[in-house]
Amino acid sequence: MVAPLPVVAVYIKESWWPTEDVLRTSDAAREGLMKVQSFGERIVLFILNVVIFGRLERNLEDGDMFFLPHSVKEQAKILWRDGSAVGFYTTKRKGSLCGDGTGACYLLPVFDTVFVRRMYRRQGLGMAMLQDFCETFQEDEALGVSWPISPAMYQAHPGNAKEDVSSQGRTSPDDGPRQCEEGKKWKKGLIDGLRGH
């Protein structure tokens, strides 16, 4: 297998920018999770997803997940730390279409994609993003998590029980997600686990 060539710069606004420079900000207020709202933030999301994860940090031998570029309609938050974009997560809104050419809609908010750069892993940042997702949609009775779930995501689940997580991926006969008592218990367990109860 041939290793992909490293991406060292991107062409934006008629000039070349080192990849790491695109992921930096001088705005001191940009710290923690920030909702993606501007075109520039969409570029940062794209660089994190397609260049950093897709080309530089994804381990092809381990069968790491692959994310398609995110739609402009998709909600996303970028995780900023010390002036650098170090991760992101995206969500599918309740009521949004499941895909092009289908009339099916998401029946609940879904935690869709999540990524933390290698050098920032094992610091609780993935859990912080999961907690932020749960707090953002605290009024909803049930929340969803996209499938397939990576092995790292299984480790984030309170109780670390694969069978509990995999049961949430089940769908109704019409292939739409379903809300059930187990889902409510899973959400409560997830939130309690994140709060340390």
From TrEMBL:
- Classification via Gene3D superfamilies: 3.40.630.30
Q: Where is the composition biased (Basic and acidic residues)?
A: 172-184
> From which domain of life does this come?
Eukaryota
Return the annotated region ranges for Disordered: 157-184
In terms of CDD domains, this protein maps to: NAT_SF
Please give the name of this protein. Protein FAM169B
Q: Which gene encodes it?
A: FAM169B
